[in-house]
Write a structure and sequence with these properties.
This protein is of the alpha+beta class. The protein is built from 21 helices and 23 strands. A hairpin with a 5-residue loop joins strand 7 and strand 8.
């Protein structure tokens, strides 16, 4: 089932207004809005890869996305409000051209009115106990709902939503009490069901009060940013308007110096979803938070949790952020429906953990050694010519591995979201003699071909590229090139992410160059899609991604993930293939793949992963949740047991033999921090079922070549 993604933001960001409005008069504000609006449109129309006609279709698209951003859970607007605003549904293109803000101003006025009037609803509902024995359900996904036709219908929608929130909290309280009584915890004060129910409602009431306080604090500039982001997203999911402070935060994020928990979030159907864990971050170290989790509550140390369902992404991020060393607790709903509390100590990302690093994997069946390089991203420091870059680091790791007399090499690109394109080409050149690596094409003109021009290879032995659904952009370029040359066996999830586009920022201060506008600067920046990637065989990685030569069971095998899930994603396309020399040493893929499938069918852990994937599919397709407490508790228990079984099975995996490189042992010496860092990384690798199968495949590759 397709889910709409509203924003893609990398923690940490800060909640900011669009401009410093405090001391600016109304006329100045209006003029600044007009200037920013004009410069955004000019940038989009002149610089974006996709050329959009400002017509009724474009207007409708902007209208729908903007209205969704104002009321993502459909808990404020009535049907009559949407009908009133729909008067402009096919006129926004004209209003944007004229920088006419009549529709925008009306939308802000209406949503503010509805927030104010709706505030009285939740308190009246939460004043009395809920009947949790009644058999009724709630539709959790707003895209499947309709706007309430009147106040009575709106109140009923709120009743079910508040009942569900109370039920989740009550279920958690009941479970904690049962466990406390089982272990004879004398510090626990037993409460009756009615006492816990009343306490659950009281806490939901408090969270609603805090949420409405936050909603009432939103200003026009916040809505303005949402309006023009809807305009930008009509061009594509990776296009957006960045107010000055947000652009500054983006640059900080790209530098790799992140403070917070290190999770990339998106807003989808009123929920804040985790789409990626930043390698080396606090979340990555803690280990429980995963891509696909929905954050439903956030709690500071020694404070009650705040319900964040329906809350703005910026507000949720603000709650999650904090000083290094402090702890934040996230209540998340896992893809299979399990509710889980995750406490994370905030930290600054340790850069060493985001760089390329390597180890030696010893095969238990023979004396062969396989080299392993983990590359979290294609990093480069654009502000420091002498700074670290991934291509140089991978070359250094490769030299160290060769001195270990390895019989094969696994390059792990799982969850690598991309990065520096020149470095992709240089890394590819380590494994091929010379030739094209990728084609880059703007909307007009011939494609530009990026080639490896250095003769010879740094490593010519058996090679494997390990990928998953989080491998995107530059990762897909490297995997695709190695696959097209026949140089490597690509192993992993059914498909990679499918992002085959190039983005760049345009500073709006440079769009408006006249000195008379200096008083309005800074204006912010627009991120545009300007080019597309193409494989050397002519096919795009866009949408389709890279299909591995050998597919391993994956938790998300039966649900739509990646670029194809995003609104307005660019289509797949194909251009002419290039001439290139395939790698002379062929792999017997048929035999290698058959052996892998035989092992997978006999593997208990992979069998559980397959079953888990089907549960995820079922949960994603079943958007209704029961409001009967007993049924809900039984469902949660069933989900927890399934998750527990998979965790226990993973714990029983015969661990991989992971060895630190001899040269690294010498470099690390007695540095306790570096020793602990490798130990933690090693422990993660030892129980990695995918890496274990990759090692088995590498053994088959060696056997087929002998």
């Amino acid at each position: 089932m397709k889910r709409k993604i509203l924003f893609l933001l990398l923690i940490p960001v800060v909640l900011t207004g669009l401009f410093a409005y405090q001391y600016i008069d109304k006329e100045h504000k209006q003029e600044k809005e007009r200037i920013i609006g004009q410069s955004i449109l000019l940038t989009l129309q002149s610089g974006h890869y996709v050329k959009k006609d400002f017509n009724d279709d474009f207007s409708e698209m902007v209208f729908d996305m903007y209205i969704e951003s104002l009321d993502p859970t459909k808990k404020f607007f009535l049907k009559e409000d949407i009908e009133k605003l729909s008067k402009w549904k096919y006129q926004l293109d004209d209003q944007l051209k004229r920088t006419d803000f009549e529709f925008f101003s009306l939308s802000v006025e209406l949503i503010d009115q509805r927030i104010e009037s709706t505030a009285a609803i939740y308190s009246s509902i939460l004043d009395k106990p809920f009947d949790f024995e009644k058999n009724e359900k709630i539709e959790l996904y707003p895209e499947n709902q309709k706007y309430a036709r009147n106040r009575k219908a709106l109140k009923e929608s709120w009743r079910k939503a508040l009942k569900y929130q109370t039920m989740v909290r009550l279920s958690d309280m009941i479970e904690k009490q049962e466990k406390a009584l089982e272990r004879n915890d004398t510090s626990w004060t037993e409460k009756s069901f009615s006492e816990m129910e009343a306490e659950a409602r009281e806490k939901v009431m408090k969270r609603q009060e805090e949420w409405f306080d936050n909603l009432k604090q939103l200003q026009r500039q916040d809505r303005y940013s949402a309006y023009y982001n809807a305009v930008a997203r009509a061009y594509g999911p990776h296009t957006g308007y960045f107010p000055p402070k947000d652009k500054e935060n983006f640059d900080i994020n790209m530098s790799g110096k992140l403070e917070g928990i290190g999770a990339q979030l998106t807003r989808r159907d009123g929920y804040v979803n985790v789409i990626r864990i930043v390698p080396g971050s606090a979340s990555w170290k803690q280990g429980d938070l995963k891509a696909g989790d929905k954050i439903i509550k956030v709690a500071q140390e020694n404070e009650d949790p705040v319900d964040v369902v329906g809350m703005r992404l910026d507000d949720v991020v603000q709650l999650i952020r904090g000083e290094k060393g402090t702890v934040v607790t996230l209540t998340v709903e896992k893809p299979d429906g399990t509710i889980m509390d995750i406490s994370i100590e905030r930290d600054v990302v340790v850069l060493e953990e985001t760089y390329a690093r390597s180890a030696v994997l010893d095969n238990e069946n023979d004396e062969s050694k396989t080299g392993y390089i983990h590359l979290p991203k294609f990093y480069v420091d654009f502000n420091d010519r002498n700074g670290r870059r991934c291509s140089e680091d991978v070359a250094k790791e490769l030299e160290k591995l060769k001195s270990e007399n390895i019989n094969g090499l696994i390059v792990d690109l799982r969850n690598n979201g991309g990065g520096s394109l020149p470095d992709v080409v240089k890394i590819a050149g380590l494994f091929i003699d010379q030739g094209p690596v990728v084609q880059i094409k703007a909307q007009r003109g011939d494609p530009r071909i990026l080639k490896d021009r250095d003769g010879g290879t740094e490593y010519d032995g058996p090679l494997m590229i390990l990928v998953n659904e989080g491998s995107a952009s530059a990762s897909e370029i490297l995997a695709a090139a190695m696959q097209d040359y026949g140089r490597a066996v690509v192993v992993g999830s059914p498909s990679t992410f499918g992002k085959g586009t190039v983005q760049r920022f345009y500073d709006l201060d440079k769009v408006i160059r006249s000195n008379e506008y200096d008083q309005f600067k800074p204006l912010g920046a627009v991120k545009l899609t300007t080019q597309k990637f193409y494989r050397i065989n002519g096919g795009a990685t866009q949408l389709k991604g890279v299909k591995p030569d050998i597919i391993l069971p994956d938790k998300y095998a039966y649900v739509e993930v990646g670029e194809k899930e995003m609104d307005n994603a660019m289509p797949w396309s194909k251009i002419e293939s290039l001439e290139y020399e395939p790698w002379p040493k062929e792999y017997n893929l048929k035999s290698i793949s058959e052996n892998s499938h035989k092992r997978i069918r006999k593997n208990y852990v992979f069998d559980l992963i397959e079953k888990d994937a089907k549960r995820v599919e079922q949960n994603r397709n079943n958007t209704y949740k029961t409001l009967n407490l007993n049924k809900f508790i039984k469902e949660q228990e069933k989900l927890r047991n399934a998750s527990k079984k998979l965790r226990e099975a993973r714990d029983e995996i015969v661990p991989l033999d992971v060895t630190q490189l001899k040269k690294d042992v010498q470099i690390v010496g007695q540095d306790s921090v570096k020793i602990e860092r490798f130990k933690r990384w090693k422990n993660n690798l030892k129980k990695d079922i995918y890496l274990k199968e990759a090692l088995n495949i590498m053994q088959d590759i060696n056997l087929s070549a002998s």
